[in-house]
Design goal:
By secondary structure, this protein is mainly β. The chain is built from three helices and 18 strands. The strands form four sheets. Strands 1, 2, 3, 4, 7, 8 and 9 form a seven-stranded antiparallel beta sheet that branches. Strands 10-18-13-12-11 form a five-stranded antiparallel beta sheet, with no helix packed on it. It has a four-stranded antiparallel beta sheet with strand order 14-17-16-15, with helices on one face. The radius of gyration is 19 Å and the shape is elongated.
Length: 229
Amino acid sequence: MYAWISDETKKTWRGMIFAYYGSEQDPYDFHYVVLDADKNHLINVNLYHTGPSRQIQTRVVLIDSGMDDWIQTKNQGIVNFLSGYCASQLAEQISPELLEKCIHLDKQYNYQKIVEVKGATGIENLLEITGYFHDAHIINVERKDPDHLKVFFEPTWGYKLTLFFYGQTSYDLGADPEYNWWLEASLFFEDGYYCLCDGEDVRHFSIKELNCWFRSRKMAYKLEPWPLS
């Protein structure tokens, strides 16, 4: 797992996630264990932040949701090589040797500013890091030619998202796009096209049945942190 991280001072950096832990009683009591901004120590970061406006925002915005080498239980998860620790105590108890391994792995991560969606894994990652586009709202669409489309979303939940569609692009913003906030989106690959639409569990492209949708041969995205208020 890899993410954008913000602290109480609104400082933002990127880093790997090595563990998480939460509470059954309080869904907002959820923490990630990451390296600090200086990459010297592990720290616990609360996922949620409530600003002066009382609006809930996220302090950890996922870039890569992959957890192939993790051990997970109901309320916590940790990377396999740290499995001898409790997730909530990892930052305080980690050995110097394993801390160095965390720092080394973090340095090795190949971060890409613009990520192409490739296959089922790419589809799953984009849906997970955006919360299946929950509360997504399109603010602008740029189309320079029939093969290139750029879609800008209003910042939400701590991130700002831009989508890029390439090759035989087509789209429909549906009725009243200015007032259309998405609840949950579907993204699938069918007949050589990627299709993103505002609708839950959609598996097939049908113009008559879809309200707001985008379709193209290739697809990419840029996810950036949005400053906490």
